[in-house]
Structure formats: C-alpha cells, structure tokens
Amino acid sequence: MFGFHRRSLACMFSLVSSLTFAGCTCGSGPYEGDYFDGDRPGPADYKYAEGTKGDPKVVGCADGQREGFADVTKNPRVAGCVGTWPATKSLRDKPTGKPCGDDGEKCAVPADLCATGWHVCGADGKGSDLVDHTTPKECDNAGPGRFNAAMSHSPTDEINPCPVIKKDALLPCVQSGLGSEPVCCGNDCKSGKCKDAVWKGKTKISIGTSEGCGAVASDRNPGVMCCYDGPGNPGAADAKVDEKADAKVDEKADAKVDEKADAKVDEKADAKVDEKADATKKDDAKKDDAKKDDAKKDDAKADAPK
User: Which one is predicted more confidently, 136 or 256?
Assistant: First the structure.
C-alpha cells in the first residue's frame, strides 16, 4: 500500500515538474526551450502618431521624425523612435553612427535610431535618466506602441517579493527571464508584478519574458526611447548656434555693402577730381589760345607800315 502511494506521488511530481519547466522563463540568461505565446511581447502592429519631420538633432530620431512623444514642443528632451534590425539585439549595444529609422535605412543596432547628441534612455542603468527627461503621465501618453529604455525593470529574477530598488541603484540589461523586460513608455506598456524601477508604483514594461532588455527583436519591440544628452532643450542650443552663424553672415554682408558703398564714394570723388582737372585744362588751354592771339596781334602791329 505504501509502495503504491510512493509511486503515485513520484508520478505526480514528475508530471508537475514537466509542466512547470516546459514554460519556465526564469533566470537571467537566454532560455533555450520553447516559450508559451504569453511569454512573448505582443505584435507591433501599431498606427503610430508621427510627429512633424525636422532636424534630427532637435527631433531626436536619426531619420528626422518621431513615432512616440510626437509633440517636440511638449516633450523636447525625449523621443520615441521606430526601426528594424536583424535578429535580436541589446538595447545597450553601442551605436555604429549610421542613421536609420522607419523613414530611412535598416538599423545595425537599436541605438542607431537615436540622432547625434541623443542616446537610448537608461543606457547607464540609472532610473534618473528617465526621471530627468519625462514624467509617468507623459510616459503613459507617449502614443500608440511601446518605446523601450535600455534597462530591465528588476535587478534580479527573484521577484517574490519584489526587490527594493534604491534611488541610486543601477539596473541591468538582461536577455530574458523574470524581471528582464525593459522599462517602456507608450499606450501598450503594461504594469508587471514589480513597478518601482523608475517611478515608484508607476513603472511600466514591455510584457514578455522571452525578450528582455538584452535581446529585443524589431518585429515585436521596434520602439526605442531616445533621451537628449545635454542640459536644457536641444532647440535652444541649436538656435544659439544658428544665431551666431546668422550674425557672421550678416557681418560679412554688411562688410560687402560698406565696401561697395566706399567704392562708389571713391568713384564719385575720383570723377569729380577728374572733372575739375578737365575743366582746369580747358581753362588753361583757353588762356594759352588767348595769349597766342594777343601775340599775333602784337606781331601784326609791329609789321604794319608806320
């Protein structure tokens, strides 16, 4: 009887174990087995709210147009950019410097979506990078889609209970497993079990443990959050540069105008001098003619018979 009971328990344990580990996505490394559909991020079939095309240095996206945080005036320091890249890539892969986007070339890495002077938000692992560039409300209202930051939302896969995340904590960029999903902004970002990574109780993620921050595919996670590198707003800095450039152009233009004006003045002055010289020559010629006439008359008188 006890033998039968032990055999039954062993069979039950084997069945439960096989069911559990068949769909397990635990751990911090890539998972070699098959995932359930629920473990994958949803398809990226969004109709993006695109912004106005402009200078990439101001817009934030390398192709010059935003797909998230579309209003540059309202969100000058953060942009949502979309593109495609081969296979899976880490959101922390270093940019190659080759611009790309859904309006341009295919990307080598996700970071190439960000324009020069911008970077993938959270690439240094600091939640403060997002805090300095946007708010929970603006993040939720970034527009249709999911725009990922370069940080997993948990420092560990032990999320029961959720880990305490201190303000200065550095978050990793894990490939897959519990807690690996990247922090994201956009209408399709969801609340996971742990919500304190950036904003306490309000941080949302791209649901799907098969694609952590370190292994995102563009067919499901094509959106990236780009943050401005410098202080203030990019438009103001560029405006100062343009203002200086315009000042130089105006200065050169004024110099040319003055040069032409001086040339005209000199030309007129020379013309007057020449005119006076000509008049003087004419007067002198008349005087010489008059003297010659007088000399002729005097000669004539001298030759006349007395």
Answer: 136
Bridge partners of 89, per DSSP, are 216
pTM: 0.69
CA dihedral sign of residues 221, 133, 143, 119: negative
Whether residue 29 is predicted with pLDDT greater than 80 in this model: the reply is no
Instruction: With beta carbons less than 8 A apart as the criterion, state whether 70 and 51 touch.
Output: yes
pLDDT in tens, 168-206: 999 999 999 999 999 999 999 999 999 999 999 999 999
Across the chain, mean pLDDT equals 79
The predicted-structure confidence for 153-166, as pLDDT tens digits, reads as follows 999 999 999 999 99
Count Cβ atoms below 10 Å from residue 192 Cβ, excluding itself: 21
SS (H, E, C) the chain: CHHHHHHHHHHHHHHHHHHHHHCCCCCCCCCCCCCCHHHCCCCCCCCCCCCCCCCHHHHCECCCCCCECCCCCCCCCEEEEECCCCCEECCCCCCCCCCCCCCCCCCCCHHHHECCCEEECCCCCECHHHHCCCCHHHHHCCCCCCEEEEEECCCCCCCCCCCCCCCCCECCCCCCCCCCCEEEECCCCECCCCCCCCCCCCCCECCCCCCCCCCEECCCCCEEEEEECCCCCHHHHHHHHHHHHHHHHHHHHHHHHHHHHHHHHHHHHHHHHHHHHHHHHHHHHHHHHHHHHHHHHHHHHHHCCC
**How many beta carbons lie within 10 A of that of residue 224, not counting itself?**
33
- Measure the CA dihedral 236/237/239/241, to 10°: 170
